[in-house]
Amino acid sequence: MSDTLLEIGNLKTYYFAHGSVIKAVDDVSLGIYKREMVGLVGESGSGKSTLGLSIIKLVPPPGKIVDGKIIIGGEDLLKLRDKELRRIRGRKIGMIFQDPLTCLDPLRRVGDQIIESIMSHIKVNKEAAREMALKVFERVGISPERIDDYPHQLSGGMRQRAMIAMAVVLNPELLIADEPTTALDVVVQSRIMDLLEDLKNERKMSILLITHDLALVIERCDRVVIMYAGRVCEIGSVKEVSNEPLHPYTKLLIESIPNIEGTQMELKPIPGTPPDMRNPPPGCRFWPRCPYVLDKCKSVEPSILEIDNRVVFCHLYGG
Amino acid sequence: MGVKPIVSVAQLKKWFPVQKSFLERLFAREKTHVRAVDGVDLVVNAGETLALVGESGSGKTTLGKLILRLIDPTSGKIYFNGKDITNVTGESLRRLRRRMQIIYQDPYASLNPRMTIGEILEHPLKIHKIVSTKQEAKEQILNVLEKVGLTPPDEFYNLYPRNLSGGQRQRVAIARAIILKPELIVADEPVSMIDVSLRASILNLMIELKSELNLTYIFITHDLAVAKYIADNIAVMYLGKIVEKAPSIELFTNPLHPYTQALLSAIPIPKPLHERRRRLSISGEISSPINIPTGCRFHPRCPFSRERCIRDEPSFIEVCREHHVACWLTTK
Question: Class for domain A4-92+172-259+267-310, per CATH?
Answer without folding.
Answer: alpha beta
